Input
Amino acid sequence: MITLSGKIGIVFGVANQRSIAWAIARAWAQAGARLAFTYQNERLRPEVEELVATLGPETPLLACDVTKDEEIAGVFAELQRRFGKLHLLLHSVAFAPKDALEGQFLNTTREAFRIAHEVSAYSLVALARAAAPLMTDGGSIITLSYIGSQRVIPNYNVMGAAKASLEACVRYLAYDLGPRRIRVNCISAGPVNTLAARGIAGFAKILKHYESHAPLKRNVQPDDLASVGLFLASDGAAAITGQVIYVDCGYQIMGV
Ligand code: NAP
Output
């Protein structure tokens, strides 16, 4: 059995109970980690608050829009004050304006490109830099990507470019942080029906396509992602860093 007993983690990207971040966070908590959470906007706060409360009344829930440096600084100052250190960071955050997630990639505006990359890729760099000083015993940083970074998935568009950037950031961060025993890895997930996914035009068709084309003939479930997130957070993955690990029922190996 994997244990995260004695580890402290921070989770970015729980919007509701379908969020991939929530599945991974629950697995971390069940394995004994003490966790803190962030939320982006007040509108979603009550739902996140309710979920987080199920892990115990003492679980910190902090406001953090990852595009705001002062909010990032505030989160890590609070973690320093409450726990004094950190071992795990889950980055499960992505955004692109809705009209950039349909039609031709060719029409991506400068602003949509900037927003998608800032929220979905640069934020990992900003969070890793803020977390590293607290990861004095080493650490594990995990982010979420999608195969649209490598291949053309119609309508995924600018998010594909942002995920390619994110995966490159994982490698450069792994190199920089390796000497401090801080590992940085990426789970490339098959499609899961979440709030963010529903913003992508034609998402239901993608789910059907995976089910019929993936070698395992099914879609990935949140628990599949949770167990890999748990492994990557654990000391069992101590020699794994800078990797993109496909958790997609084998879809990535297929040609046609
Ligand atoms: P989700 O539940 O909607 O989670 C996305 C999270 O990103 C939300 O909590 C959202 O917060 C947050 N976010 C967006 N802009 C932010 C900002 N400026 N600051 C802070 N947080 C912000 O969807 P999900 O599918 O679990 O997505 C999690 C990650 O998995 C994303 O990186 C996504 O690209 C990746 N992924 C998803 C799939 C899939 O099929 N679902 C497949 C592969 C990879 P708000 O809701 O408050 O805006």
Helices lie at 20-30, 45-53, 69-82, 110-131, 158-177, 203-213, 222-233.
